[in-house]
Amino acid sequence: MRRAKVLRNGQLVGYLTEDDRRIYTFEYDDTWFADTTKQAVSLTMPKNQKVYSSEYLFPFFFNMLSEGVNKRLSLSRNTGRGIHNL
Description:
Elements lengths: L1 E7 L2 E8 L5 E5 L1 H5 L16 E4 L4 H4 L4 H13 L7
Antiparallel strand pairs: 1-2, 2-3, 3-4
């Protein structure tokens, strides 16, 4: 399992997790989620829901990766091989 902190202007927004089955989860931090003045991490993940889950890396985060990493991640998903075994 891998887990990354998601920050906006140095403040914790939430956590992005990839589990051993390669399911992705984004969960808003409790403080960020409760603060109505804080914006959602993206339009596709509004704050009317605390946890989002997907078989694929969420487009908002996928688009932040470098092009080479995007290609390896797509190949990994399509071939079933680990990203470092391509």
